[in-house]
Amino acid sequence: MPLSEHEQKMLDEMERQLFADDPRLARAFAPKAPPRRNGRRILIGLGAVVLGLALLVLAVALPAIWLGVIAFIGMVAGAVYAITGPSGTSSGTGSSGGGPGGGQGPTAPGTGDGGSFMRKMEERWEKRAGDDPRL
Question: What residues contact residue 17 under an 8 Å CB cut-off, 6+ apart?
Fold first, then answer.
């Protein structure tokens, strides 16, 4: 069931307010560009896989189990190196952590970026629930 025009406007306004009150949350939910594949990285990883495969064939020809194990580990490491992106963070994000929360704990009400928003939301919730001790 699609939202009505009024509901869509209210939702957009709530989203703008939330992102204005908590910029860290806005950065966490911002669309991220997919990591670019580096041709040099793929070539090095592919070379390691081919070299590991050649060593594995050599290990089968010579009864050397230890060489086969090393070759297999080299093949897996080369494949992982070719598939994964660089471990550094992209420039411009400035987030400290890889998770949606930015690697930091939740913000306590009244402190930090989103404290005023959370405090307002808690006050509204208490008023609706009738649990406001100030009333």
Answer: 117
Extents of the domains making up the chain: 42-83, 107-135
| pLDDT of 64 over the 90 cut | no
Q: Are 110 and 20 in contact (CB under 8 A)?
A: no
Half-sphere CA count of 9, side-chain side, radius 13 A: 3
Taking phi over 0 as left and psi of -120 to 50 as alpha, with beta for the rest, 94 belongs to: left
pLDDT in tens, 84-121: 877 654 444 444 444 444 444 444 444 455 568 888 88
Which among 11, 40, 22 is positioned nearest to 101, based on CA atoms?
22
Q: Identify residue 124 by its one-letter amino acid code.
A: R
